[in-house]
Amino acid sequence: MKEVDMVSNPFKPSAGHLPPILIGRETILADFNEALEDGPGAPGRLMRVTGPRGVGKTVMLAEFSNTVKALGWQVIAETARKDIVQRLIERLQPVKGNFRFTIDPSISVMGVGGSLGGVSYEKQHHIVDLSDALAIRLDELDKKNSGLLVTIDEAQSIERDDLTEIATAVQNMTIAHRNIAFVFAGLPSMASKWLNNEATTFIRRAQYEPLGEVPLEEVSEALRDTFQDTGLWLDGDPLHVATQATAGYPFMIQLVGYHIWRNANRRRNGETEAFAVTDADVRSGISSALTRLGDTVHGPELDGLSPVDKTYLLAMAQDDGPSSTSVIAERMGKDVRYASRYRARLLEAQVIVEKGYGWVDFAVPYLREYLREHAAYVRMTSSEEG
Ligand SMILES: Nc1ncnc2c1ncn2[C@@H]1O[C@H](COP(=O)(O)OP(=O)(O)OP(=O)(O)O)[C@@H](O)[C@H]1O
Ligand SMILES: [Mg+2]
């Protein structure tokens, strides 16, 4: 039996934090492990992890990092931002040795002194591109029989030139059979960016791992176990209500767990015997969780959208389930072609998902309820374009 931790809340309702139990991700973890075992060139050594906000993409990257670190591999974890290629190269700087890379995106020559194409470089300054930098690090790692994992989060935001260089490096390393794995995580829109770029033909073949909701039976089990490990008893009806409220959405699992745990822990007041979580703990915990979900996911999500996008969503929120795209157009007072432009934008932003031909639904749970509750405000901020 595990030691009972009387103080800290085990749930982690914050971006990228490993949850107490990683629920429902056995398949993708097995795919990744298999790719490591199968060695260089295995398809799973180039992976694309996608899904809506809060589904657990960043957590998967962290879990992969832990997996390879346990094997003695090195990890370079980056998030897409300006100059990501430069940052990657900087992080690949040799740890030992008396030379540093000089980075010039227009040159990809390594030398030991002299002048080339009007650019001079010194003995200590090797001019490299991303492929060179990776190759040098991998040479080092080969000596120790270990490998390198490169993860790139928010990959939908990689800028075009950086994407080209990264894609080229991935291709070079793979063709050269190097002991490396690349995992890209981001919103599904990254795929459409890769489509518009010739250099990305290769990484388009990355193994596709879409993350979605996790099964409620597993949520239920994980909630019960996590509470039990901290001396709290959550079972029966309260457990059922808590489980349903998560909708299998990972961020909501942590929020619900966190707030219910907090309520019960406050009541037990240092009590060390197994202490039962009540209906009231659960109900008030869910309500706090929903408020937090609205503030941290739904609110910011809507803020980033155009007025017409929001009008589209308000039209959807009138339905209790999936919405017919032609009915939405009607509600908006527009033709189907006009409405479909906004549907495409919202699909791309992963705010909505397709539910069969001509039907759409919200991509994250409770957005419908949030829109209804805040309809007056949302309508106000979506009125500029009508
Ligand atoms: N498999 C899982 N089981 C339980 N909780 C999880 C799981 N995956 C993620 N979480 C929890 O969900 C929350 C969101 O995870 P994470 O930040 O990885 O999502 P994300 O997909 O990267 O979101 P974003 O697109 O906003 O960056 C975190 O609180 C994390 O602890
Ligand atoms: Mg993330």
UniProtKB/TrEMBL annotation:
Pfam families, A to Z: AAA_16
Keyword hit for ATP-binding: yes
Ribonucleoprotein recorded as keyword: no
Domain Orc1-like AAA ATPase stretches: 22-180
Keyword terms of this UniProt record: ATP-binding, Nucleotide-binding
Gene3D superfamilies registered for this protein in UniProt: P-loop containing nucleotide triphosphate hydrolases (3.40.50.300)
Molecular functions per Gene Ontology: ATP binding
PANTHER family: ATPASE DOMAIN-CONTAINING PROTEIN, DNA-BINDING PROTEIN-RELATED
Name of the protein described by the UniProt record: ATP-binding protein
